[in-house]
Amino acid sequence: MKKDKLVIPDHNTLFATDPYVKQREGKKAFEAPCSEQETAEALAYSKSAEYKDKNFARTSLVVNPHKACQPLGALMAALGFEMTLPFIHGSQGCTAYFRSHLSRHFKEPTPAVSSSMTEDGAVFGGMANLIDGLENSVALYKPAMVAVSTTCMAEVIGDDLQAFISNARQKGAISEELPVPYANTPSFSGSHITGYDAMLKSIISTLYTRSGIEAAPGSGEGTGEKLNIILGFEPYTGNFAEMRKIMAAFDTAYTFLGDHSGNFDSPATGEYSYYYGGTKLDDVPKAAYALGTLSLQKYAVKKTLEYIGGTWRQQTVGLSAPIGITATDRLLEAISELTGLPVPAELTEERGRVVDALTDSHPYLHGKRVALVGDPDLLIGLVQFCLDTGMEPVHIVCSNGDNGFKEEVEALLASSPFGAGATVYIGNDLWHMRSLLIGEPVDLAVGSSHLKFAAKDAGVPLIRVGFPVFDRHHLHRYPLIGYQGALNLLTTIVNTVLEGLDEQASGFNHDLVR
Asked: Before 468, cis peptide (omega within 30)?
């Protein structure tokens, strides 16, 4: 029997059909739009040197910043722990934004609840909402821990989370045994990495304090030889798998302090659970016995590392994303120094294979001018990768970077002749980047999906790296760190370059072999 073909039109074709064309034309009668000539003139002016100067002179307007809100990061941190329910004290709309943002990147559901504050809560405070919300959430979803963060509304009116949670226990809405870490995460300051750090520190400190354990680095039966590992605000579930592979090669025990890979890469079995994987709650206080803590994102977890180093009196090593040969070498050296174990031969062999691949592709990458956008730790890793491969970073924009980050990147650039032409911009946004791409062209742009509009206006190919990636599928499943991550990134970049060469070729120079 012949089956009817299911046609699912993309919006490119759907909105080109007659009903939508007529609808757009009809709307013009009410919108009083600019003429096509005026639009063309404004677009041309936005690409001029005069406009670029005005763009960089603005101080009271932000256009498309490359960062998200603090509670989004807090939500991700909460999902890194076993049977933990993220609870956002604020409006439903804010919570929906955080959930949809993460779901669009990972293509997975994002479980979280809200205290559903409205106008009444904004005037009279949100204590009743929070207490009722905690009681209902625990009854419905039966979490082992609830992690509470805040939105702008709760922060502006000054809601006291500690007091509200204490009142919820006194009223019997939640039990004394239920851990409820909380973090103040106002969206009007910081960014998603600030919120991640605040929540991670709160979870670790809450579970440690409640346990009664006394920190003693390098001691404890079955725990003293372990290493703690923090990946931070990690948009690549594949990076957790890569780190597991590396630690398995070292044949040493470890504990991830925050592992959200299970929640954001769960199987489709026909049954859905609210909780997948995550660091076991009982393992968190025992992490105070470990040899030390290694973080792969030092700028994203500053407060957490300070807490571990101070309260646990533990050796901490903060790296930035180990992308490429040099940075991965540094990662393996750090693990070796913390554990006293030699770098495994299988990782050395893997390194050799990646060096071979880099040698194969080097002629097509050498001297390529690159623009980069991302979070601080990711950008440091990407800059190092560019210098390793002979590519030349030119424009480096970090909306949530600080002066310490800028100084570190500038020192890294100064260490290589390939970094001589680069400028680092902190606190700038993607509209600034658009002016840079148009005024000082590059060969490649590297960043999240939000960079696609500026890259298209400038006619520059976009390599999608970082968070969020909405318009491509499954990239988060492939590691970006380690030697395998270096190979993955190399493959993506060099094949983008080769694709461009094919598109530019005509006639006899449309080569079969590259």
From this structure: yes
Instruction: Tell me the C-alpha distance between 431 and 206, whole Å.
Output: 41
Burial class (CB in 10 A: 0-12, 13-18, 19+), 264: buried
Q: CA dihedral in degrees (400, 405, 406, 407; nearest 10)?
A: 160
| Cβ neighbours of 4 (radius 10 Å) | 5
Closest of 109, 112, 120 to residue 137, by C-alpha: 112
Distance CA 57, CA 315 (A): 44
Among 320, 305, 220, smallest CA distance to 258 is for 305
Of 69, 138, 152, 373, the active-site residue reads: 152
d(CA 391, CA 10): 36
* Percentages of the chain per state (helix, strand, coil), in multiples of 5: 50, 10, 40
- Tokens standing for residue 327: 């940075």
Task: Give the separation between CA 297 and CA 322, rounded to whole angstroms.
Answer: 9
For residue 486, the Cα-to-chain-centroid distance in whole angstroms is: 18
Q: What are phi and psi of 505, to 5 degrees?
A: -75, 155
- Residue-wise pLDDT tens for the chain (514 aa)? 567 888 888 888 899 999 999 998 888 888 888 888 999 999 999 999 999 999 999 999 999 999 999 999 999 999 999 999 999 999 999 999 999 999 999 999 999 999 999 888 888 889 999 999 999 999 999 999 999 999 999 999 999 999 999 999 999 999 999 999 999 999 999 999 999 999 999 999 999 999 999 888 888 766 777 999 999 999 999 999 999 999 999 999 999 999 999 999 999 999 999 999 999 999 999 999 999 999 999 999 999 999 999 999 999 999 999 999 999 999 999 999 999 999 999 999 999 999 999 999 999 999 999 999 999 999 999 999 999 999 999 999 999 999 999 999 999 999 999 999 999 999 999 999 999 999 999 999 999 999 999 999 999 999 999 999 999 999 999 999 999 999 999 999 999 999 999 888 887 777 888 8
Q: Spot the catalytic one: 21, 34, 63, 156.
A: 156
Question: What residues are paired with 295 via a beta bridge?
Answer: 230, 318
Exposed / middle / buried, residue 178 (Cβ in 10 Å: 0-12, 13-18, 19+):
middle
Q: Which domains, from first to last, does the chain contain?
A: 70-211 (3.40.50.1980), 227-344 (3.40.50.1980), 346-504 (3.40.50.1980)
Assess whether 156 carries a catalytic annotation: yes
